[in-house]
Amino acid sequence: MYVAVKGGERAIKNAHLLLAAERRGDPAVPELSLAQISQQLAHAVDRVMTEGSLYDRELAALAIKQAHGDLIEAIFLARAYRTTLPRFGASEPVDTAQMEIRRRISATFKDLPGGQVLGPTFDYTHRLLDPALAEGSALAEPAQAEGGDAGPMPRVTDLLAQDGLIEPSPMADPDAPVGDLTREPLDFPAERDLRLQNLARGDEGFLLALGYSTQRGYGRTHPFAGEIRLGEVEVEFFAEEVGFAVPLGRVTLTECQMVNQFQGSKTEAPRFTRGYGLAFGHCERKAMSMALVDRSLRARELGEELQAPAQDEEFVLAHSDNVQATGFVEHLKLPHYVDFQAELVLVRRMREEVAAQDSGQAPMQEAAE
Amino acid sequence: MTAVRQEESNRRAVMAVLAEARVDELVRAIQALGTPAFRELRPAETGLVMVRGRIGGDGAPFNLGEATVTRATVQIESGETGFAYVLGRDREKARLAALADALWQGAQREAVERHVLAPVRGRLETERARKRAETAATRVDFFTLVRGED
Fold this sequence. Notes:
A: 13 helices, 7 strands, B: alpha+beta, 3-stranded antiparallel sheet, 4 helices
């Protein structure tokens, strides 16, 4: 139990003044602008938007600046901000098949309709630190090529689906509302829509470790990265007063289609199964980890033996949120004086009892036996 | 019925362009139209829209996360009502986008096309063409090598 404390106002105020000064650092060094953070620390912004569950680059950049670059603190700020705004409603589901592609790769087919484009990727870089970058070196113009207007690209999973080699996506139940864990507390067992919402907001490191654990044998799913795509997608919102779905603008999304080993039964021929990942911005590691864990959490539905942490829905979903996790871990820093006093009294009394036993009472008990 | 559908589809295309316009582009364009008078039926307001995806990309919907959206409703002197719902928190942009939507529905459609939409469309098309060309330059052809017997 936590018992409230009073006092310390002046120390707290001064600590916050000191914090603000530390954030700014040496005034002789130019201050970061939000545009600089948004553009030059774009992956940090993308992560804060995804896990903060708030698509707004400028706000995410502000949160990163205010949090001195502590991304979990920034995610916390983004989550807190969203509670101050009214919700107009939910968008029409985005259509990632219509994405304006900036990156699209498949580890399963080398020749697929629409082709593969690497886009801006860390893949195949040598991971050697570049001293020239420290100097702010001049930049080579990106190369350009013809033939970029390939139109909408089919998903790899659609190609497999044509031959019935992969399970179809679950269809919407028109009578069932879409689960929303920001409105109703999560209950177990959770449906896949709620699981995906939880994973989309979940901590990248936690999901990465869980996904990795399935690869190492803790609930193997034999995954292939069927397709990863990055690009811009239009979002539409049905506005009652307008009478049709209004285009709101475009958001950047990363999507991962994981293709996993077969399932079959006496009545159904074997076919590949699937895991799905989707994230705001360019969050490839996150989308892949999400897809791995989405597939693992389908163990119950697919009749697989439940034996690994990544298959344990309650374990995964109840611990994936880094804002909740950091809140509970970090609250240990707050004064717990009354709690601790009670523990002190208890441990002293127990020690006195042990000491009393050692000095005489214990031998008497032995004699009595 | 089809005429109504067509009009709705055209208006949606206009709104899509306005949603991606920068506020300075709208300010300049509205000035070029002589800064028409309007009345705010609903003052610009920022809120959230829950963005939905689909399981597997094409299946049942799920909630991905929210986005900031600003909306406004205005009415012009000739009576047309304009709406705007645009990503972000820029109230001035939402107001001007709603005004452009109202004007486009009225007698000034051609002027809106020329002064408001055409420049923004032009910029967006140039930017997209550049991105497409840069992306196309990263097109990759992988070869599988036959493993020798050893």
